[in-house]
Amino acid sequence: MRRLPAGRCSGVQIIHGVTISPALLETLPLCAYHRRMITCGWCGTHYHSWKNQCDRCGGRMPPPPGMELGPSPPPVPRDLPKGFAFRLLVSQNIATIVGGLMFAVATPITWGTLQTKTWAASIPGLMALGGFFMLRYGLTTAGSVLRAFRKGRAAEGTIASVKLDTTQSINNQHPWKVVYHFMVEGHQHEGVLVSWDSTLISRAAGQPLWVLYVESDPTQNTVYPPYR
Ligand SMILES: [Zn+2]
User: Fold this and answer.
1) Which of 18, 77, 85, 87 is the residue whose CA sits 20 to 30 A from 224?
2) 157-190 b/e (C-beta count within 10 Å ≥ 16 → b)
3) Inside any domain, residue 4
4) What is the CA radius of gyration of the chain?
5) Domain count, the chain
């Protein structure tokens, strides 16, 4: 293995490779972003060692990377940890926040400029309309995921690929994009999970995971337990 300068993270190099075993991962010089932190997908609490259940919210944690599927999801209707639905729908939903703000700000301005009966009203009007559709998208998308969590059928899925999602970044760091497959009545379906969870680096293609899907529409699906 090529030795890296002291203090320099090797995360960027290794993620463009392939499978990294947990043992090898421990030997690599990694920054906080790439270091293996176990994060509760329900509430975001970080842990240094693996746990089955989150101390803070009581939510089930994913099994360690490997070929272990973990226990099957509980029967429906499933209770979700307190606060999870609000975070998914509102406080951690960029589309809901931005769309809601745009709609809330532009709607009264549109109303005011409409009194002038000029074309000036069309600019805030378009903003309000854009905000409305963004808000609706955020709530609809999160609602589908919540429906799958609460009432979805469980299926055994497998990870198809784990890559960096270079279409988005925060502080020059990219989240992970996990593509997974699962079967419903003989048909293969695909789902995508985007997460900042650094343990995903060691989840190779072929590893099993539980998928929850809405029976009438398997395109509405999510991984159980969740990643964040
Ligand atoms: Zn938690």
Assistant:
1) 18
2) bebeebeeeeeeeeeeebbbbbebbbeeeeeebe
3) no
4) 21
5) 2
Helices 122-151 and 94-114, interaxial angle, to 10°?
150
Instruction: Show the domain range for 42.
Output: 11-73+152-224
101-142 per-position pLDDT tens digit: 999 999 998 888 888 777 777 888 899 999 999 999 999 999
- Distance (Å) from CA 154 to ligand 1 centroid: 21
Spell out which residues have Cβ within 5 A of ligand 1, the ion.
40, 42-43, 45, 54, 56-57, 59
Distance of alpha carbon 139 from alpha carbon 146, whole angstroms: 10
pLDDT digits (tens, 9 = 90+) for 208-217: 999 999 999 9
Question: How far away, in angstroms, is 105 Cα from ligand 1 center?
Answer: 34
Q: How far is the CA of 80 from the centre of ligand 1 (A)?
A: 11
